[in-house]
Amino acid sequence: MSPRIGVLLSGCGFLDGTEIREAVLTLLALDRLGAEAVCLAPAGLQRQVIDHGTGKEVLGGARDMLAESARIARGEIGDVAVASAAVLDGLILPGGYGAAKNLSDFAFVSARATVHLEVARLLREMHQAGKPIGAICIAPAVVAAVLGPTTHPLLTIGDDPGTAAALLAMGARHQTCAVTGCVVDPTNRIVSTPAYMFDARLADIALGIERACEAVVAMCGSAKAQGASS
Question: How many whole angstroms from its chain centre is CA 99?
């Protein structure tokens, strides 16, 4: 049976939601690996709406995270509030500022970040069930905010020293990584890749995301084999 991998979105557009290219590359990689992608997002308003042409905030703008994420998912999306580790084999968080503005408030308070309650719940459920978690670009900050104080996951955001220091302050460990690579924490079953933390070619970003997705799907297979033998 194909592994069911949750893909947790945070809106539509890298300045205020999900980085669209990272999301599409994730969905493509999972499809090529024979996995079933299950798109999820929180319901509720984004913290900001940004004009992606000017980079300026649209004052008075209001967009719902779930409705905006449905644009990327072609309408096939579920509310993260009704998702659980019981129905997923893995979970991947693409990046974009939505991870740091909507799934968490990392963009505003750095290492003092808190995470959306339902997102935090699902991350803890997945970790407690031994099911793999993937985090792309800035999304490792969300994982660090939830799991850092207790499990000290090994993560990467590339080579940015300021962001790496914030992850360390949240209790995570950091490993420098090239855009084409990924970092695997086998103990916590967490995979991360830098993607657009670098100003890099799309082909190189795609390679890093493919490798991260391969690692997540491989962990799903090992978890099922372990469950069958126990």
Answer: 7
Question: Which member of 137, 177, 213, 220 is catalytic?
Answer: 137
For the chain, list residues with pLDDT below 50.
225, 228-230
Per-position b or e across 184-213, b if 16+ CB within 10 A of its CB: bbeebbbbbbbbbbbebeeebbbbbbbbbb
User: Cα–Cα–Cα angle for 6, 224, 5, nearest 5°?
Assistant: 10
pLDDT attached to residue 228 = 45
pLDDT tens column, 181-230 = 999 999 999 999 999 999 999 999 999 999 999 999 999 987 654 554 44
Q: How far apart are CA 94 and CA 137, in angstroms?
A: 7
* Token pair recorded at residue 203: 């082909």
User: pTM of the prediction?
Assistant: 0.96
Q: Which residues have C-beta within 8 Å of that of residue 73, sequence separation ≥ 6?
A: 9, 39
To the query of whether residue 137 is one of the catalytic residues in this protein, the response is yes
Domain boundaries, the chain: 4-229
Contact 148, 110 (CB under 8 A): no
Domain 4-229, CATH class in plain words: alpha beta
Give dist(CA 178, CA 28) in Å, integer: 21
The per-residue pLDDT for range 105-114, each reduced to its tens digit, is: 999 999 999 9
Phi, psi (degrees; rounded to nearest 5) at 201:
-65, 145
The torsion angle over the Cα atoms of residues 57, 47, 19 and 183, rounded to 10 degrees, is 130
Mean of the per-residue pLDDT values of the chain: 95
